[in-house]
Design goal:
Blueprint (H helix, E strand, L loop, with lengths): L7 H10 L7 E3 L6 E6 L3 E6 L5 H16 L7 E5 L9 E5 L4 E2 L7 H18 L22 H10 L5 H14 L10 E3 L8 E4 L4 E5 L6 E3 L13 H12 L7 H18 L17 H10 L12
Antiparallel strand pairs: 1-2, 2-3, 3-5, 4-5, 6-8, 7-10, 8-9
Helix pairs in contact: 3-6, 4-5, 4-7, 7-8
């Protein structure tokens, strides 16, 4: 897989196109897919690490304008070039959203709740976009989210990851959750990676300044956008989401849908138990999702969560 090098000459060329110099480029916390650099004080430069990640950057270039028009707090695209005709790498330049990503902070519980409520409201705006209201987003993939947790549990039992009693308990849990799930949820545009490292906030106020990194955007069940935040933040997120959307469905339907994703993805991680040191995502350690479920349900969660076990 061909790598895109951020050589001094390349960075100097990109800086020159934006009216500055390479001396004003400074590294920012890195993502899995992109080199991320601060260009001066007001712009952010993103270059894919390899050709593998270029389609995600192209997707972001299409999705971000739609998200902004929907009112979502996300940076504006200043420049985008995937041709490599001017410089030898594809790149995107965005306005800078000031703040600190949540992964770098230890917010008090009250501040975290206020933040995640704001995140829920932003998702409420985003999820108004559908294939009918945004028909030009032809390059965005669709994901029906139809992973079969019963089949997954059976495979984990067969392969020795679960004992028989635990497998029966898990299938019973999915049996109890399934009546709360819609048969065919209409797909909406989801961000796909609503996680701490992609939420930029003002540390002093816990105000959400922006949501970044749209490379995982897709058409999917809106509940999937609640699956990359630990369950401890989900009640506040759903509260904000309900405020923004005015959804008529009352608890526990949405709680069950979100829990379905968390539990299914936690089990799926058992099939890939290799640790990933250095990755900033909270689910990089193999046991994190399961332990997050344990932590949440042993900490007296608010209604209706306790009734979903």
């Amino acid at each position: 897989m061909s790598a895109y090098e951020t050589s001094d000459a390349t960075l100097a060329a990109i800086a020159g196109l934006l009216g500055t110099t390479a001396e004003h480029i400074r590294p920012l916390p890195q993502g899995v897919a992109n080199h991320v650099l601060l260009l001066g004080d007001d712009l952010v430069l993103r270059i894919p690490r390899t050709e593998q990640f270029l389609p995600d950057l192209v997707k972001e270039a299409a999705v971000i304008p739609y998200a902004r028009r929907a009112g979502v707090r996300t940076p504006e695209i200043v420049a985008f070039d995937d041709t490599c005709s001017v410089v030898d790498v594809p790149y995107m330049v965005l306005t800078r959203t000031r703040g600190t990503d949540v992964a770098c902070l230890e917010l008090p519980d009250a501040d975290a709740a206020r933040l995640y409520q704001q995140v829920g409201r932003e998702l409420g705006k985003l999820h108004r976009l559908t294939p009918d209201t945004a028909p030009d987003l032809v390059g965005v993939p669709a994901n029906d989210g139809n992973a079969d947790p019963w089949a997954l549990t059976g495979r984990l039992l067969k392969d020795g990851w679960l004992d028989a009693e635990t497998a029966r308990w898990l299938t019973g849990w999915f049996d109890r959750l399934s009546p709360h799930l819609p048969a065919s949820p209409p797909p909406v545009l989801i961000h796909g990676d609503i996680a701490a490292q992609n939420l930029l906030v003002s540390p002093e106020t816990a105000r959400l300044n922006g949501i970044v990194d749209w490379g995982d955007a897709e058409w999917s069940d809106p509940a999937a956008d609640f699956a990359k935040v630990p369950l401890t933040g989900i009640p506040a997120m759903l509260d904000g989401y309900r405020q923004e959307t005015g959804i008529a469905t009352s608890p526990p339907s949405w709680e069950a849908r979100v829990l379905w994703f968390h539990l299914t993805w936690a089990l799926g991680r058992l099939k890939d138990p290799v640790p990933r040191p250095g990755e900033r995502h909270w689910t990089a350690p193999p046991a994190s999702r399961l332990l997050s479920l344990l932590r949440f349900f042993t900490s007296a969660p608010p209604a209706p969560w306790a009734d979903l076990t």
